[in-house]
Amino acid sequence: MTAPRFLGDRGSTLPIYIWLTTILLFTALAFFAFAQAASARSGAQSAADAAALAAAQHARDELLLDLGDAIEAGNGNWLDWLDLAGVELPFEGADAAAAELAAQNNSTLEGGAQPTEVDGDPGFQVDVVTDYTVGDSIIPGTENMTATAQAVAVIQPRCDFAPNPNPAQPVSLDCDGVPVDIDPGNFNPADLPDASVMFSVYLAK
Length: 205
Fold this sequence. Notes:
Blueprint: H1 2-72, H2 80-83, H3 94-104, E1 107-118, E2 121-130, E3 148-157, E4 159-160, E5 171-175, E6 178-182, H4 195-198, E7 199-204
Helix pairs in contact: 1-3
């Protein structure tokens, strides 16, 4: 009489085992779908960060050229370029630089690189959308779902100089420990250091 009862218990356990296995499998697939979505979001954010930095770095390089032109032209306001006081960022080429970096990360720039400001520092905001989708999963619609992200990169002056300098006379700069001397009366644009010495670019959080 014991054996039939044992077989009956084992038979009733089988549906529970199948049910638990199904739940575990479904849970694993759900976690995989969330992991796919997280991976797509991470890829989109990397693309947005790269695009924003590219726009700001391009503008920084143009800023150095504008600074050189202002000094060479005898513009008495050339010192404004050093602290970016009232200086508009050069926008030309920033969109193209941002779009190129977004494309290199399999994403598309949306709306161009938009000028912005963070704590008084000028910069660019970008929005990107991935060219790829989250992929097939147990969640309906993910096969057509893309990821989006936003990033802001700003330009910050790195050079300090004595108060109230005469812009027509030689000026000594301290660019985060790097000395830079500019003599407007005997100026050669090639004497300017790399733009990264005079202006830093960073991602705003």
